[in-house]
Specification:
Blueprint (H helix, E strand, L loop, with lengths): L3 H10 L3 E5 L3 H8 L5 E4 L3 H4 L11 H14 L4 E5 L9 H14 L3 E5 L5 H10 L3 E6 L5 H4 L9 H17 L3 E5 L3 H10 L3 E5 L7 E4 L1 H4 L17 H17 L19
Parallel strand pairs: 1-2, 1-8, 2-3, 3-4, 4-5, 5-6, 6-7, 7-8
Bound molecules: 3-methyl-2-oxobutanoic acid (KIV).
């Protein structure tokens, strides 16, 4: 399993880090057997698992439940839990209490969107023994401030701000940093300007690693096709076809067949 010190070693050795989201035990079984380095219990769970149209609807109970479900199964993986909307803005003790719940549920670190106003809190969590992954660029919890899900850090002054914020995360003790939807050149500049590993999503190939939402990577959201996304499977079609086939088999009495049925002298349930 990758560890916090290993993140630094990977950056120095220029060995990329892979991270995907995972929210349930079935997928955790598969991810656990894969070479993926890190599992993120993101607040995108509010959207892909619970049907909300924004990540602001995630709360501590939701994230904690998904952390526990995944951690029970994915014993070989480093697990990062998202601090949900507002949880890091209601004082250091509230943030510490929520982050502590996630660690006790099985996470190894927490992720926090934005650093301005949170420097002391990040330092406190790190000093408490809770590793912190930062998140900058398009931070979806601030979607209303941004006026939509838009590429960030396009102007020189926004890029300078991004660089300063990245350095502030590093100074506060964060061990890594997600950069979301920013031009690839500034993502590379940030990556080369700090000593902690950057993990990109929509930030080009110059970061120290990449992250994707599992449902997006597997093609479960046919209408969500941002430029940065590569779909490795057409999961939507694949699963729909399986459900259609099951329905057909039921209505045509093709399921269950003789082998799939119990007879009077059956010995066990296998
Ligand atoms: O919640 C999430 O899925 C995330 C990733 C997009 C980085 O924060």
């Amino acid at each position: 399993m990758i560890t916090v010190p290993e993140f630094y070693k990977r950056k120095i050795a220029q060995q990329k880090i892979s991270m995907i989201t995972c929210y349930d035990s079935s997928f955790a079984t598969i991810v656990n057997e894969s070479p993926i380095d890190v599992i993120l219990i993101g607040d995108s769970s509010a959207m892909v698992m619970h049907g909300f149209n924004s990540t602001v609807n995630a709360d501590a109970n939701m994230i904690e439940t998904h952390v526990a479900a995944v951690a029970r199964t994915a014993k070989n993986k480093f697990i990062v839990a998202d601090m949900p909307f507002l949880s890091n803005r209601m004082g250091i003790s509230t943030a510490t209490e929520i982050a502590g719940r996630f660690i006790k549920a099985g996470a190894h670190a927490v992720k926090i969107e934005g650093i301005r106003g949170c420097e002391e809190m990040v330092r406190h969590l790190v000093d408490t023994g809770i590793p912190v992954m930062g998140h900058l660029g398009l931070t979806p919890q601030s979607v209303n401030q941004f006026g939509g899900m838009k590429v960030q850090a396009k102007t020189a002054s926004e890029q300078e701000q991004l660089l300063q914020d990245a350095k502030a995360f590093e100074t506060a003790g964060a061990f890594s940093l997600v950069l979301e939807c920013v031009p690839n050149q500034i993502a590379k500049t940030v990556t080369e300007s700090i000593h902690i590993a950057t993990i990109g999503i929509g930030a080009g190939v110059g970061t120290d690693g990449q992250v994707l939402v599992l449902q997006d990577l597997l093609g479960f959201s046919p209408n969500f096709k941002p430029k940065f996304l590569r779909q490795y499977l057409n999961g939507y079609e694949l699963f729909k076809n399986a459900f259609e086939q099951f329905h057909l088999d039921v209505v045509q009495e093709n399921f269950p067949n003789e082998k799939e049925s119990y007879h009077e002298n059956f010995k066990n349930h296998q």
